[in-house]
């Protein structure tokens, strides 16, 4: 087994870097994780039954008891602290009680029973540790709890049991800390034996941690090792294909799932719909959806969100109508997708109706994500006062994403006073977030308030805030080509730069005038124009024109929000070259064709 990592993993939270109302992908990964947890635990339980069903292994009778006096005292939903088990209780009964608590979601009680068991001098065995590791990871308590159990199982010599090692990989992979997935990988690498549960635990953990490229590599390693993938592994890697925009890999996983007969599993179908939608392949997402023999709320929501993110807001509402008619009940995430769709389609009245309906008709209390969508909806319509009034009347604890949504609307409508108030709220809630500084700087720049631009930059420097470097990438024949601003590191850099110059000449002939408000203002005017021409997204588009067949769309992805001048320029490039360019930035998809964009020039 891997040695214990030095130090504990400090807990970290999600940091939104986009002006988008919500990070819908993060929510999808969370839901996939919950789905996997539920079904994988059942699958492992079936395997555990087979493992335990040997002479002398009497724990299974207690574990499966529907009304057992020993275990019932630990899982009563309205009970207080866990009752102590009777004196003389043995390890087998403790294992059964701990396992039952873990399966019931009573993680603190499971750990308390273990402390009681240890206090009575009983030694943990290979059946004690898996539910404890699961409880320690899911309790979200002290980050060192999993590491402490890791140390205990090493001292007890239990690391060689495959199901114990699998539980350890899964526990580290679930930790909400920067090093959790890396430690899971280290434990995995030291294991002498692995099975499909081992690989799937690693894949899911990497996907949950946002290490999508690593998850895709792990999937390829799983296939190379000759381990036959199951529905949980496929769902996990498809989530990472969506997160890393690896459409080609996603298609190959889809083909493998068809070959293995896994597509009828709803979790696989849901993941395919989400993956295709999040890589801009809406036609494929719809085809998978239509072919699914059964659909659930997650299925419908994935398609609703997919249409919304790809600028097809009205189609999202049509799908929602079909969902309700089918008898499927919407949930919290469904309404996020609906409100996002209304926002991007400019449907203010429909958005208000759905915001009201979620509470009145479905009993779903609006959360910060829904308020962020409503602020975005009202902000797009220029109703900033109404948006502010909505926030003032909210009884929900609002997070930084809500205020960044308001800040984005203020930037578009050049309301500096309200933007400054929104930025102050973001700083109060998330002092390390660079987004409000960048947005304020852009707003001041467009208003020619150069002194305020300099003040914001000085403030960032004084507070140690650094902006995330922008980059763009395009996939060609399964290879990802990454570009930064004025990047000359690509083997075909000379060709790419000549193509950029050609692009600029063509669109200038069509009336393009660079908007230097989006450039660094400490450069000369000609330097600002040149800087705009070599932004990462334009280099990626130029390479796409060189390398992507004329009949295929050029798919470009950017880690940050696309700048306004590049948005205009790339729309014109799409028209000048007769190409379809699909640009996904940190906020949404931009489907560009014939000089038009699916976002309606508001993103």
TrEMBL record:
PROSITE patterns hit by this protein: PPR
Domain called DYW: residue spans: 511-603
InterPro entries: DYW_dom, E_motif, PPR_At4g14850-like_plant, PPR_rpt, TPR-like_helical_dom_sf
An example molecular function term from Gene Ontology annotations: RNA binding
Keyword vocabulary terms for this entry: Repeat, Transit peptide
GO biological process: RNA modification
PPR repeats, residue ranges: 90-124, 195-229, 296-330
Superkingdom of the organism of origin: Eukaryota
Gene3D superfamilies xref list: Tetratricopeptide repeat domain
Protein known as: DYW domain-containing protein
Organism the protein comes from: Sorghum bicolor (Sorghum)
